[in-house]
Design goal:
Blueprint (H helix, E strand, L loop, with lengths): L2 H16 L5 H18 L2 H13 L5 H24 L5 H6 L1 E4 L2 H9 L3 E5 L5 H11 L4 E5 L2 E2 L1 H13 L2 E5 L5 H10 L3 E5 L9 E5 L2 E5 L2 H9 L2 E9 L5 E5 L11 H22 L25 E2 L11
Parallel strand pairs: 1-10, 2-6, 2-9, 3-5, 4-11
Antiparallel strand pairs: 7-8, 9-10
Helix pairs in contact: 1-4, 2-4, 3-4, 9-10, 10-11
């Protein structure tokens, strides 16, 4: 393990062991302070965040984009502060920490026993939403986690999410899709963060007027298993409670090839994500390249991500 990897692993270990012990107001202030320092440094991550917001809010001038990126970094650090503290939250704190709209789509889907896929973008705190599902709805689910560097840190994230009641599968290795399909055929719940896929297997979609690629997995799983596919978007307001919306189901088209159906369904997911992101752009934590125009043709997506929370290529999804 390199010295940088050792430092990264140690810092995350310190976060989970120390920040969860802080009083909540102290943790909130600490997160805002770190966010503001990072924002003032104008590093690559902040610049990329601003560039991405320029697509979401095309009429925003420089001052508005600066305001958005500052709010975005505060939202992003709120995610990290909450994540470090989640293992110490009581069941009642978790139940009261998330208030989703149109939750009947979710509860009806769970009751149907046909299998259910929740697809989310990187908004607000998807780990808190997952903990709410396992706690308030008493429903376990399966997800996948991207391999992180160093491996010890990946193990920390797996242990953290398993401690919140999630079954976590590694994204790499080729076996995740089959396991997810089995869980869905058994009437289970699968949750996937699903708005960024720069691999060759990603489905090209239009997103805020430009082309990008999103994962085919949610649409393919719905087709192969008959599971219900629900987009979910999340956001923060000025309260300690995270808000969210469960969007109407994305239906499998009645006609077309598998590839055509997958394309239509993935575009429908992209449209639902865009609706939520446009309403709450500052809570979309996309510090990475996303649109195809921004990608270096010679640059291939890495098989493993750094877990530095201020690294523009970070991604513990």
């Amino acid at each position: 393990m390199s010295a940088r990897d050792q430092l990264t692993d140690s810092l995350y270990g310190l976060g989970w062991s120390t920040i969860k012990k802080l009083p909540e107001p102290v943790a909130v202030r600490l997160g805002r302070t770190i966010a503001d320092i990072a924002w003032k440094r104008r590093g690559k991550g902040v610049q990329r965040l601003e560039s991405n917001y320029a697509r979401v809010v095309p009429d925003a001038g420089p001052e508005r984009l600066a305001e958005l990126s500052r709010a975005g970094m505060r939202s992003y650090l709120r995610y990290w502060m909450e994540s470090f503290r989640l293992p110490a939250w009581s069941a009642e704190r978790i139940k009261g920490g998330f208030d989703p709209k149109d939750v009947h789509y979710l509860t009806d889907g769970i009751a149907s026993d046909r299998g259910l896929i929740l697809a989310l973008p990187h908004m607000a705190n998807w780990d808190l939403a997952g903990a709410w599902v396992t706690t308030a709805l008493e429903t376990p689910f399966t997800t996948v986690a991207e391999r992180l560097k160093p491996e010890t840190l990946y193990d920390r994230f797996v242990a953290y999410r398993e401690g919140l009641g999630m079954e976590v599968l590694p994204h790499s290795g080729g076996t995740a899709f089959g396991t997810l399909a089995r869980r869905l055929r058994d009437g289970g719940l699968v949750c996937l963060v699903a708005e960024r896929d720069l691999s060759a297997s990603g489905v090209e979609v239009e997103f805020f007027g430009e082309a990008t690629r999103m994962p085919a997995g949610p649409a393919l799983l719905a087709q192969q298993t008959g599971a219900l596919l629900l987009p979910v978007t999340l956001w923060y307001d000025d309260s300690p409670v995270m808000r969210g919306r469960v969007h109407p189901p994305v239906e499998v088209p009645e006609t077309g090839s598998r590839a055509e159906k997958t394309s239509v369904m993935t575009q429908a997911l992209a449209d639902a994500f865009a609706t939520g992101i446009a309403d709450h752009p500052e809570d979309w934590h996309m510090l990475q390249r996303l649109w195809l125009k921004d990608l270096d043709p010679a640059r291939k997506p890495s098989g493993k991500s750094s877990a530095d929370p201020l690294d523009p290529e970070m991604g513990p999804s």
